[in-house]
Amino acid sequence: MEKMIQIHPGDNVAVALTDLEAGTVVELNGLTVTLKEKISRGHKMALKSLHPGDDVMKYGVPIGHVTEEIQPGEWLHTHNVKTNLSGESEYQYHPTHPVLPVMEPETFRGYRRKDGRAAIRNEIWIIPTVGCVNGVAETLEKENQDLVSGSIDGLYSFSHPYGCSQTGADHAQTRKLLAALTRHPNAGAVLVVGLGCENLTHEQFLEELGPYDPDRVKFMICQQEEDELETGRKLLEECAAYAAQFEREDIPVSELVIGMKCGGSDGLSGITANPAVGRFSDLLCSRGGTTILTEVPEMFGAEAMLMDRCESQEVFQAAVDMINGFKEYFISHHEVVYENPSPGNKAGGITTLEDKSCGCVQKGGTAPIADVLGYGDQVKKKGLNMLYGPGNDLVSATALTAAGAHMVLFTTGRGTPFGAPAPTVKISTNNELFEKKKNWIDFNAGTITLGESIDAAGLRLFEYVRRVAEGEPTCTEKHGFRDIAIFKDGVTL
């Protein structure tokens, strides 16, 4: 096993692949450097002398600057490196027009909906339009599990605290997000549960939802029912009868939509798991499939890696507006744009937001960017899409599901048990996490530190995704971990 890696030939730092003690001698690309202090896995060591103000180069780009004199072999982290980021930026479009090879899509055994869409699960979803009826939805889920039989894969409710006492954009976002989840193809049938006096009225929800199949989507307004649990049972029986007619059949992988997210990242995220997901994304897009990249604040400092891959000036401008719009969101709340990474990220070796972002965008592979989606928007174009969403794990994973993702690939260096409404695949960046948390982690990309190529890991992930699409349960599904979180910005009445 190699001790350290220099990711790009132009980097002036190397990253430890395992814990290294002071005095360890590292030979790397013709350089011999002796560690002057202990450097933990995922953390950075200087390969050359640096002076105050000099850029720290990683991934071939600046990830910040040093604040003091640095000698080869010294540890570089938050104590001696600061971000270069500030506020909004001017961007120029220098299109690279990347081209992926065209490959014939394999098939997977999925569900074909009556409107022609593909699905990887055949579930019944209960969606409350307001937090006041969360208990009703949860009780209906708990008391009606006997309806899960045959080709029905599960019955789930998705509680949230909103749908009332909201105004403006928040009210619109809640309405849009819940309607998008109602349309999700993994839901063979849906019961929408309202109260009757909330801001998000039944009429508003119907307008947002648009045309729907009344055999697939049922509605219950609790204040209009003498016994909402009895009525809910009858409606769920109707949902089950409808969903039970679907059976798995061969579907091209070109119809898969896969969301990509990272959280609890460490210094290996951008070296192992995220590049492996990037290879997967390229493999799926080469076959005509669709991937979605989100977490806008974790693109700050790495925007150029994405923007020049936009398919057109129009898509480029939408990406610019999304990036600067999210920066303005920070500034309008009197928050500094670069107030990220988290304490766990820093403990894992991530020093600045640029450091985190350059690792984060590796999930996007090399494909051209086909479209930019707003929060609650649904995918319209095949290929790699960018989606407006925060870094928060559950908020962004929910937005990925609402955008139409059949599945969410979630890379992590520290681990997390949560699950989105769509099957959520946890991918470890390091071997230690995989061995320790087998009840959380589905796929190990830490093998890259042991010599597996990124290409091989990406192909292995592609085959694993096909198995999950065909019904192999993820750890979150085995434990029943399913939650949603809705993006909120404004006042609560």
Give descriptors for this structure:
493 residues; alpha/beta; Archaeosine Trna-guanine Transglycosylase, Chain: A, domain 4; Rossmann fold; 3 domains; 23 strands; 28% helix; globular
Strand runs, count: 23
Tell me the β content. 15-25%
Note poorly predicted spans. Answer: none
Helical fraction: 25-40%
How many separate domains?
3
| Radius of gyration computed on alpha carbons | 23 Å
Q: Helical region count?
A: 13
Query: What separation lies between the terminal Cα atoms?
Result: 58 Å
* Widest beta sheet: strand line-up: 19-20-18-17-21-22-23
Structural class: alpha/beta
Q: Biggest β-sheet: count, sense, barrel?
A: 7 strands, parallel
Mean pLDDT: 95
Q: What would you note in describing this structure?
A:
Helix 2 packs across helix 3 (202-209). The protein contains 13 helices and 23 strands. With 493 residues, the protein is of the alpha/beta class. It has three domains: 4-82, Archaeosine Trna-guanine Transglycosylase, Chain: A, domain 4 (Roll), CATH 2.30.130.110; 123-245, Rossmann fold (3-Layer(aba) Sandwich), CATH 3.40.50; 254-479. The strands form six sheets. The chain has a seven-stranded parallel sheet with strand order 19-20-18-17-21-22-23, sandwiched between helices. A four-stranded antiparallel sheet has the order 1-2-5-8, with no helix packed on it. The radius of gyration is 23 Å and the shape is globular. The protein has helices at residues 134-143, 168-182, 202-209, 228-243, 273-286, 303-307, 313-332, 343-347, 353-360, 393-402, 431-436, 454-469, 475-479, and strands at residues 4-5, 13-16, 25-28, 31-34, 44-46, 55-58, 61-66, 75-76, 81-82, 107-112, 118-119, 123-128, 154-157, 187-194, 217-221, 249-252, 257-262, 290-293, 369-373, 383-387, 407-412, 424-428, 443-444.
